[in-house]
């Protein structure tokens, strides 16, 4: 790259996004659709370097045009798919006394160790699903009692 081009590229850092957009429009002959300063800066620097070094050959431009004509052009990236890892994340309005979904709550009761699986929407105990910890405690004891108290969650130790 020539010293003149290096100087032009270095001066781009001093320009505002408005000035960069104007320079982009002058160099590329089309309106700048982005207001991302870093992106526009890089595109202009690339164009300056390509012009300085001769750019692509006519054969390469022709081949690129053919390939581009055969493909579908996306202007926006595809939406990301939720991974299984994302599904186990704690929901926004999650009670801080509960462990995150996928964890087990253990409790010793009448000589047995009870295991309750925390789900994003409810709990699972002994193969059954329950909407609340209180419902799980009622199923275990046969009487009404607060689920957080029964499982000793949220209490000072």
Topology:
Layout: H1 3-11, H2 17-28, H3 37-53, H4 58-70, H5 84-87, E1 104-109, E2 112-119, E3 122-125, E4 128-130, H6 133-141, H7 147-150
Antiparallel strand pairs: 1-2, 2-3, 3-4
Quick recap of the structure?
With 157 residues, the chain is of the alpha+beta class. The chain contains seven helices and four strands. The longest helix is centred in the N-terminal third of the chain and has 17 residues.
Number of strands: 4
Low-confidence stretches: none
Along the chain, the helix and strand elements come as HHHHHEEEEHH
Head-to-tail CA distance between termini: 68 Å
Global shape: elongated
Q: How many helix segments?
A: 7
Mean pLDDT: 84
In percent, how helical is the residue content?
Answer: 40-55%
Features:
single chain, elongated, 4 strands, about 160 residues, alpha+beta, four-stranded antiparallel beta sheet
Report on the structure:
With 157 residues, this protein is of the alpha+beta class. The protein is 43% helix and 13% strand. The chain is built from 7 helices and 4 strands, in the order αααααββββαα. β1 and β2 form a beta hairpin. α1 runs antiparallel to α3 (37-53) and α2 runs parallel beside α3 (37-53). The N and C termini lie far apart (68 Å).
């Amino acid at each position: 790259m020539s010293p003149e081009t290096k100087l032009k590229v270095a001066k781009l850092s001093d320009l505002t996004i408005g000035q960069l957009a104007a320079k982009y429009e002058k160099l590329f002959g089309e309106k700048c659709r982005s207001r991302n300063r870093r992106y526009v800066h890089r595109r202009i620097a690339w164009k300056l370097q390509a012009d300085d070094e001769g750019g692509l050959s006519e054969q390469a431009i022709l081949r690129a045009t053919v390939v581009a004509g055969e493909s579908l052009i996306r202007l926006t990236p595809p939406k990301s798919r939720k991974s299984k890892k994302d599904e186990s994340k704690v929901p926004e309005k999650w009670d801080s006394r509960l462990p995150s979904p996928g964890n087990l709550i253990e409790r010793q009761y009448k000589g047995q160790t009870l295991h309750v699986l925390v789900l994003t929407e409810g709990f699972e105990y002994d193969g059954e699903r329950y909407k609340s910890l209180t419902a799980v405690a009622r199923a275990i004891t046969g009487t009404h009692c607060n689920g957080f108290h029964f499982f000793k969650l949220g209490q000072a130790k």
